Amino acid sequence: MAVKKETKKKKTLVEGGEGCVYIQATANNTLVTLTDKYGNALAQSSAGALGNRGAKKSTPFVAQQVVETALKNASNFGVSKVGILVKGAGGGREAAIRAVGTAGLQILYIKDVSPIPHNGCRPPKARRL
Hints:
This protein has helices at residues 60-73, 93-102, and strands spanning 18-25, 30-36, 41-46, 81-87, 106-112. The protein is α/β, with parallel strands linked by helices. It has one domain (17-112): Nucleotidyltransferase, domain 5. Strands 3-2-1-4-5 form a 5-stranded mixed beta sheet, covered by helices on one side. A hairpin with a 4-residue loop joins strand 1 (18-25) and strand 2 (30-36). The radius of gyration is 19 Å and the shape is globular. The N and C termini lie far apart (73 Å).
């Protein structure tokens, strides 16, 4: 019985040249994903994928390198205008945003999408002595 081979669809040029850069800057790592305007991922990179380990992964310098790597991987998709969505409060947050600007892309907007607790967790019940 013949086994049907699954082929991957080749990613093509982005229409309109618009996309989104998702930056997740946590206390331990920095993740960057470049998508088209429909949310289809074009390229991604992380501090761990670049070979950094431990506390180095959350530094601003490594965050800049992560953004440069992700944008270099996506350079052949024709993205020229991007919106930036930042999540988390890590050390590489500001450096990653600056790196997108220095890469030559036109920034349409910068939006913070960090999750915010509305009322927090339920407190523990009062101790009885």
